[in-house]
Write a structure and sequence with these properties.
The chain has 179 residues and is mainly alpha-helical. The protein has a domain at 39-143. It is built from seven helices and four strands. The strands form two sheets. Strands 1-2 form a two-stranded antiparallel sheet. A two-stranded antiparallel ribbon has the order 3-4. Helix 2 runs parallel beside helix 6 (145-159) and helix 4 (114-125) packs across helix 5. It is globular. The protein starts with 5 loop residues before the first helix and ends with a helix. Mean pLDDT is 76; it is low at 32-36 and 164-169.
């Protein structure tokens, strides 16, 4: 009888753990809506991020830095009240602001200095906004993800500026060939 190596002995256990992890991850990242379809939380996060970046002019509201080249552009949609502590406020647009990486996660960022961040927020937006967000956090209940997706999509459509339509005679022959 051929002896199996330690790595070969552990392979089935690793595969079982991997399958268990992946199914747990899928359940965690998608919540069931009343229509029995799964709405991915990543999709809702992406819609909210797009709305916030358009609303804040693609600039960090704290330092004014613009988007950087590369994936994501270096701008984050940051929660004023954390989504872990206040899950009902995760998609509240008043609770989201656009911050660059250094203002959000950097050494002097939002998460490293919460007292300074709160002080800055009160100076920029007023103490009333913070109190209003806390009031909303304690009065909000669970949200239907399907309805939320529809609402976020409508909000994004309101913010997006329609592209000007150019007539056929304004295009050069080289541009006309590309289309």
């Amino acid at each position: 009888m051929k002896r199996r190596t330690l790595l070969q002995q552990k392979a089935p256990l690793r595969r079982a753990a991997q399958l268990k992890r992946s199914s747990w991850f899928k359940r965690r990242r998608a919540l069931k809506s009343p229509t029995s379809k799964y709405i991915a939380l990543d999709e809702l996060d992406s819609l909210a991020r797009q709305i916030i970046l358009i609303r804040d002019g693609f600039k960090c509201v704290r330092c004014g830095a613009g988007p950087k080249p590369g994936r994501g552009g270096g701008l984050h949609a940051s929660h004023i009240l954390p989504k872990g502590s206040y899950p009902s406020m995760r998609y509240e647009l008043k609770n989201l602001i656009a911050l660059c990486w250094s203002c959000h996660l950097g050494p002097k960022g939002w998460h490293k200095n919460p007292l300074e961040a709160t002080k800055w927020l009160a100076e920029k937006y007023g103490q009333d906004r913070i109190e209003h967000l806390r009031y909303l956090a304690f009065t909000r209940h669970k949200t239907d993800k399907a309805a939320l997706k529809v609402w976020l999509t409508e909000e994004l459509a309101k913010l997006q500026v329609p592209q000007p339509v150019e007539s056929w005679h304004e295009r050069t022959p080289a541009q006309a060939k590309r289309r």
